[in-house]
C-alpha cells in the first residue's frame, strides 16, 4: 500500500514537473514572439519614417545641366527639425538620408528626425565636428538595422566586387554638393575615433590615415589613393550584429566641392 502511494505521488510529481516545463516553454516562445514583433515594428517604423522623408524632400535633378540643382529641400527639412544640416547618398544602396547634429552627444542615437524615440535613430554627427565638413576627419554614424535601412548597407562594401564597382558617395549641403571617393572599408575596433585621435595634430591625422589604409583587422578593401594631412576624410561608421567590440567603417576622401542652385 505504501509502495502504491509512493508510486502515485511520484507520477503526480512528474506530471506537475511536466506542466511546469510546458508553461516555461510557452513563456519562452511567447517572449521570443514578442521580441520579434518589437524588432519588426521598429524596422517598419524606421523604413516608413525615412522613406517618407526621402520621398518628400528629395527632388529629381533637371535634364539640362548648367549649375546642378540641389535635390534637397533644406528649408522644409529645417522647418521639421533645425538640426538637419546635410544629406547623404551612397549609390546602389538604400542610404539616402538627412544628417543631423545636436549639441548633446549621441542625442540622435535613438531619436528620429522628429526627435521622438526610434530604435533606428538618425544618421548623425556629433558636435566635435563642424557642420561644413571642413575637419580633417568627420565621423558620420548610423545603426546597422536588419531591414537594409540606416547604415546597414555599408556592409555591402565587405564584398570586394561591390567595393570595386562603387567608388563614390555624396553629401549635400545648402548650396553645395560634396563628392567623396571611397578609400577603404574595414572592420575596426569600437573606440570613439574623435576622442582617440586629436585631429588638430598632424601626427594623429597621419596615424588615423594609416589605421584605415593599413588595417590590422579583416574585411579590408582599399584603393591605391594617396592622402595627405590636408585632405578631408568622411568616415561612415556602423556596428556589427552581436559584435559590440567592433565597428564597420567606410572611408571617403573629398575630391570635389561644387556649388549648386
Quick rundown:
With 261 residues, this protein is of the alpha+beta class.
Give me the CATH architecture, please.
Beta Barrel
Overall SS class? alpha+beta
Subunit organisation of the chains: single chain
Radius of gyration: 25 Å
Unreliable residue runs: none
Output the helix-strand order. Answer: HHEEEEHEEHHEEE
What's the number of extended β-strand segments? Answer: 9
CATH domain class name: Mainly Beta
N-end to C-end Cα span:
98 Å
What's the CATH topology label?
Sortase, Chain: A
Let me know the largest β-sheet.
9 strands, mixed
CATH superfamily, by name, is Sortase
Mean pLDDT: 88
Shape: globular
**Total domain modules:** 1
Percentage of β-strand residues: 25-35%
The percent of residues in helical segments reads 25-40%
Number of helices: 5
Describe the structure.
The protein has five helices and nine strands. It has 261 residues and is of the alpha+beta class. The longest helix is centred in the first third of the chain and has 56 residues, at 2-57. Strands 1, 2, 3, 4, 5, 6, 7, 8 and 9 form a nine-stranded mixed beta sheet that branches. It has helices spanning 2-57, 74-80, 160-165, 193-196, 202-213, and strands at 84-89, 96-101, 123-125, 137-141, 168-173, 176-189, 221-222, 233-240, 243-259. The N and C termini lie far apart (98 Å). A hairpin with a 2-residue loop joins strand 5 (168-173) and strand 6 (176-189).
Amino acid at each position: 500500500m505504501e509502495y502504491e502511494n509512493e508510486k502515485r505521488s511520484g507520477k503526480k510529481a512528474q506530471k506537475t514537473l511536466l506542466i511546469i516545463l510546458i508553461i516555461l516553454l510557452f513563456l519562452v516562445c511567447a517572449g521570443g514572439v514578442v521580441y520579434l514583433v518589437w524588432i519588426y515594428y521598429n524596422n517598419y517604423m524606421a523604413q516608413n519614417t525615412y522613406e517618407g522623408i526621402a520621398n518628400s524632400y528629395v527632388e529629381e535633378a533637371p535634364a539640362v545641366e548648367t549649375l546642378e540643382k540641389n535635390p534637397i529641400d533644406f528649408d522644409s527639412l529645417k522647418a521639421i527639425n533645425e538640426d538637419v544640416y546635410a544629406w547623404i547618398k551612397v549609390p546602389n544602396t538604400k542610404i539616402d538620408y538627412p544628417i543631423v547634429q545636436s549639441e548633446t552627444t549621441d542625442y540622435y542615437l535613438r531619436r528620429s528626425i522628429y526627435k521622438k524615440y526610434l530604435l533606428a535613430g538618425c544618421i548623425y554627427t556629433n558636435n566635435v565636428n563642424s557642420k561644413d565638413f571642413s575637419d580633417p576627419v568627420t565621423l558620420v554614424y548610423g545603426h546597422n538595422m536588419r531591414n537594409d535601412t540606416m547604415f546597414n548597407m555599408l556592409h555591402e562594401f565587405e564584398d570586394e566586387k561591390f567595393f570595386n564597382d562603387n567608388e563614390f558617395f555624396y553629401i549635400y549641403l545648402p548650396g553645395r554638393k560634396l563628392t567623396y571617393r571611397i578609400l577603404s572599408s574595414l572592420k575596426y575596433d569600437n573606440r570613439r575615433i574623435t576622442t582617440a585621435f586629436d585631429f588638430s595634430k598632424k601626427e594623429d591625422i597621419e596615424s588615423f590615415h594609416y589605421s584605415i589604409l593599413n588595417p590590422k583587422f579583416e574585411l579590408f578593401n582599399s584603393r591605391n589613393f594617396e592622402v595627405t594631412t590636408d585632405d578631408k576624410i568622411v568616415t561612415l561608421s556602423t556596428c556589427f550584429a552581436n559584435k559590440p567590440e567592433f565597428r564597420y567603417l567606410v572611408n571617403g576622401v573629398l575630391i570635389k566641392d561644387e556649388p549648386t542652385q
